[in-house]
Design a protein that fits this description.
Chain lengths: ~190, ~190
């Protein structure tokens, strides 16, 4: 069996609340990072508040509809980002959100490697039928990466978000279980 | 001067009103026993709910609306006898982006195909665009809800997204559509 948590460039871990809070308090200062990742306004939270939030997650315990991973590089063993899954068990679908907070690791294939691990986890471990994600039209780098990973564009909600006085579409993408399986078979040949 | 005299919550045959915590739970409980209605309205599993459960939901709803300030919920009532006929809502409002999602349902079979849905959507759109000043609204509709799709298209909604095979029902998978309407599209037909 393949290692679910180890890709070609990165591996999935779960960092301790202190480590996560220290990193995220730094990453949130990067508003380009935030505006690529989220439609909510950028804000600055204290290290304590972030840590408390992660500790509360711990207290709430395991939830079969929520999975979070931290991401470390294989080469440097550096903590560079996160990937989270929100699962709809009834309709067998997951939504993924991911980010690379350390900018020197942008545009080098780390995101695609994270996404490949995520797809393996969703289809081969959780056994779901569908993996979905959303992004903004001003993020062509993410669009290319997701297309490369086999995601299909399913449409766009027009002029959905406003940035600096201009409106942009939100893009909706997905990959179905059968499409992922076909890709796996193609790669193994 | 803008049209301050045309009431936001009064339609031709219907009106929007607040929840009646005494009378409404029993009526809405009946609707939840209609699995076809529930499958049109919700993507969560249909299940019969008691009046006591509905009562709790109302309390949660009002608490949510107060705390999160991103939800406007209305009961639809017939003007002639004030009876409850449906529900409408503007939800998941993102104030900084000026967007939100709409919900609408006519509960009792006897009240459907009477034009109440059309009147309610007309009022809901005016509320969303002319009172909340939103820029766009969206609606999520399963491909098997043909009534809702026809209604949205009548109002100029555009099918923007097709979430392929994202619902599981009756042993097969169904698409879920996202419809959208922009403020200027609404204005040009109003």
């Amino acid at each position: 069996m393949t290692d679910l948590f180890r890709g070609e460039l990165v591996r999935f871990t779960l960092e301790e609340p202190e480590t996560v809070a220290k990193a995220e308090v730094r990453w949130q200062r990067d508003t380009e990072f935030n505006r690529l990742a989220d439609s909510e306004p950028s804000r600055l939270s204290s290290e304590k508040k972030i840590k408390d939030w992660f500790e509360k997650q711990l207290e709430d315990g395991f939830k079969p509809e929520r999975y979070s991973f931290s991401v470390r590089t294989l080469a440097e063993d550096q903590y560079i980002g996160f990937l989270g899954l929100w699962v709809d068990l009834i309709h067998s679908e997951a939504w993924v959100g991911l980010g690379i907070g350390e900018r020197e690791f942008w545009s080098k294939g780390y995101g695609s490697d994270m996404m490949k691990l995520c797809q393996g986890y969703v289809f081969a471990e959780l056994g779901l039928q569908r993996l979905s994600l959303g992004l903004f039209e001003y993020n062509p780098r993410a669009l290319r990466s997701y297309e490369k990973c086999g995601f299909q564009l399913e449409g766009s909600t027009r002029k959905d978000v406003m940035r600096e006085g201009k409106r942009y579409d939100s893009l909706w993408m997905s990959i179905l279980r059968d499409e992922w399986l076909q890709m796996q078979n193609g790669e193994n040949k | 001067m803008f049209d301050i005299q045309t009431q936001l919550f009064e339609g031709q045959d219907i009106r929007f009103g607040p929840i009646d915590h005494e009378k409404d739970p029993e009526i809405e409980s009946k609707w939840t026993h209609d699995s076809e209605f529930m499958r049109m309205m919700e993507t969560t599993p249909a299940r019969p709910m008691s009046a006591a459960m509905i009562k709790k939901q109302y309390e949660k709803l009002e608490k949510q609306a107060e705390e999160n300030k991103n939800l406007y919920h209305f009961m639809i009532r017939a003007k002639v006898d004030d009876r409850l006929i449906g529900k409408a809502a503007v939800q998941w409002v993102e104030w900084t982006n000026g967007n939100a999602y709409l919900r609408l349902g006519i509960g009792a079979e006897a009240d459907r195909r009477k034009g109440y849905g059309t009147q309610a959507l007309q009022m809901l759109l005016r509320f969303a665009f002319a009172e909340l000043n939103l820029f766009r609204v969206s609606a999520l509709v399963p491909e098997y809800n043909e009534g809702a799709i026809a209604l949205l298209k009548n109002f100029g909604f555009v099918q923007e997204v097709c979430r392929r095979k994202s619902l599981e029902r009756d042993g097969r998978r169904w698409d879920l559509y996202v419809f959208g309407l922009l403020k200027d599209e609404w204005q040009s037909q109003a």
